[in-house]
Amino acid sequence: MREENHSVVSEFVLVGLTSSLEIQLVLFLVFSAFYVAGILGNLLIVLTVVSDSQLHSPMYFLLANLSFIDMWVSSSVVPKMISDVFKERKVVSFQGCIAQMFFIHVVVGTEMVLLIIMALDRYVAICRPLHYLIIMNFQTCILLLLAAWIIGIIHSLIQLVFVVNLPFCDHNEMDSFYCDLPRFIKLACTDTYRLELMVSADSGFISLGTFFILIISYIFILITVWQHSSSGLSKALSTLSAHITVVVLFFGPCIFVYLWPFPMVPVDKFLGIFYVVITPFMNPAIYTFRNKEMKVAMRRRLIQILSFRELF
What we know:
By secondary structure, the chain is mainly alpha-helical. The protein has eleven helices and three strands. It starts with 10 loop residues before the first strand and ends with a helix.
């Protein structure tokens, strides 16, 4: 096939998840419920941390930012996915597809770095408690968060700068429910082997590397605690268990989708659903139901809201 210097494709057709009307109805209800619950849960965490002075600490500052990012992870995909459920022809423009991929990789790359920062925060809190507020002061937290966003933007731009000018011919059907970088590349009418390797190295190996860094850091924290006080090991495990759960839920789908050498469309779609729908919903549940201070603060906010309404 003769390569062109520019794309002749102005839009992409998304295959979606199913053609069954009954299943589409179920998916519409399930996705809508998970999305609304995830947005409200994460928003509640952000508002609780911002409004409650007792939660103005580095750990809750980072947790609020994680919830903020999770809202954008799901919002970058789920609203269009829900609106497309009953559409016979699911279409996204070329520019819209590029924008969606850019935004997804920005927030995902930022969340990867943020999880490392949260692991650092727990290390300082557990292993150096007397110096915690000195090391993890507000200025340090802001600089670390800014670095996370910068790295996320660079991570996304590095990939998209190589794919935005790919030549596309007449094949524009993407077997996915959102603009997925690996499947976007496969539609190009040119040899994309090196580009696919680059994407795997950028997204896949970075995900795998970050995952191992986090797991090793947690092991190091537990070993340090055990060496100083074996009685404190159970408390450290309790503190880190929520972080470990989030890390596994977040990185598992990323590693499989970008590093598994044999494409498996049904599995990839399932992991995509888990990644953009389930995980942003579960994160607030994991942190909230396992954190006593957060539950007390939310209860306090709720009582204040109810008391305010009674005045009127």
